[in-house]
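Closing statement on the pyridoxal-5'-phosphate sub-project.
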Amino acid sequence: MLMSTTPASVAAATPNAEQFLFSDQALLPYQAAMSEAIQRVCRQLSQQTKPTSGVTPAQLQQQLQQVDLTQPLADLSQVLDELQTTYLNDAVYFHHPHYMAHLNCPIVYPALVAEVISGAINTSVDTWDQSAGATLIEQHLIDWFCQHIGWAQQADGIFTSGGTQSNLMGLLLARDHFCEQQLDHCVKTQGLPAGAGRLRIFASEVSHFSVKKSAALLGLGHNAVVPVACDQDYRMCPLALREALHQCQRQDLIPMAVVATQGTTDFGSFDPLPQLAPICREWNLWLHADAAYGGGLLLSNQYRQRLAAIELADSVSIDFHKSFFQPVSCSAFLLRNRQWLKYAGYHADYLNPRIDAAAGIPNLVDKSLQTTRRFDALKLWLSLRWMGPNAIGELFDKAITLTQQVYDWMSAECDDIELLHQPGLSTLVFRFYHAEASDAQLDECNRQIRRRLFDEGRFALAATKVNGRGYLKFTFLNATTQLDQVQQAIAAVQQIGRQTLQPLDKPQEACA
Ligand SMILES: Cc1ncc(COP(=O)(O)O)c(C=O)c1O
């Protein structure tokens, strides 16, 4: 239809509802729309000079309140213009070298190619009859990673939405396996057994909060997670684990599982699997390795040995959207023996009937907590096939090496910075320090440092608490970040810190 200038005919030029459906009939407008969106992204990234804009929720809320969802805009350009102000201008940009806050990685663009393909084909990997090759690609990746862990043929796994879901799966399987083996009780069909409130999970005092969340979701409650003391490097202390187990036994509680974090969120520390695994065997405990962060070392050329003995775990969480440079979401739960996946499974007549399994038809929903599920494996597949595993490992290695350089430099040069630990991976917990300042003043000073840097958009740093005191945290995942950029961030920390605590350096003025 020819465009005219009258509003009525402009409206008529907007595709009707069916024309918006993606099919062979929509290829030209689809390509035009995709290239407009890609241009927008390219423009944004080429102009993005800071990781954040420092926008406040109230400011953005004002923009959003002007959006009337009942009134669609005339064309994609207008839609993207609106998105520019409601989202793009103020988004947080993880690719920027001054982004040093949370475990968000810059992403590799082969994965973005995969996102275009998986988004367009819209495969759901729950059953073979909705996915075909996608199911086999996911399974191939799972098998390959199980081999990298060092497990034998009977290992298996499934892609998940993230480390939180993977940890939940690990503890769900641990609980149901324990109840079946020790109490002759099937939780899946009968619910929790009497006395389930006595079941206990052991995790280090700096383990991820998703362990407690999982315990609550599993009907055991936060109190079922026993925090085990760490050594000075924030690694679970095997002796403390033994003591905690004996203590539970004395209290008539029932040890069920140990979560050994491989790369803690704050310190990047590794709970020592070579020492923890024999204790788990002795006490008949499920050993879950939360390698959501440290799992990236599976592809490392330099630091793989830090994951020593991971093959002794019963199950493992790995997050490809952390240390494999993949877009959110991309994650996996892996386990040593595929038999145990039965605790997560369900056969629905309409979807994955038992006869399918008997006929060897692979329905991944058999082993997932989700039903409809994105083909997230494709981005990792494409990244591996295009870049190769060494290149992905090299990106993580560079971030780890940078972190050690930053640590060495800060220890040698920065008198007013208190560093809490040697880096285990690519994080550093520290705070601006002044000998005359009280703990409360230091907390407030470091809080202000982070807030001001974020508000000005100069550097994005994280904050955490250790022993009740406020600290700052660097998380480095960007292989292009240079030492001098980190030195600039530290100089900014020191400058704001000194300004904030300046009164402590001056003699008190006499009262008039
Ligand atoms: C050690 C650890 N485990 C689990 C998680 C949760 O992962 P996700 O955010 O992918 O759910 C995180 C997140 O930072 C983590 O650091």
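The two ends are 83 Å apart (CA to CA). With this model delivered, the sub-project is considered complete and its resources will be redirected to Aim 3.
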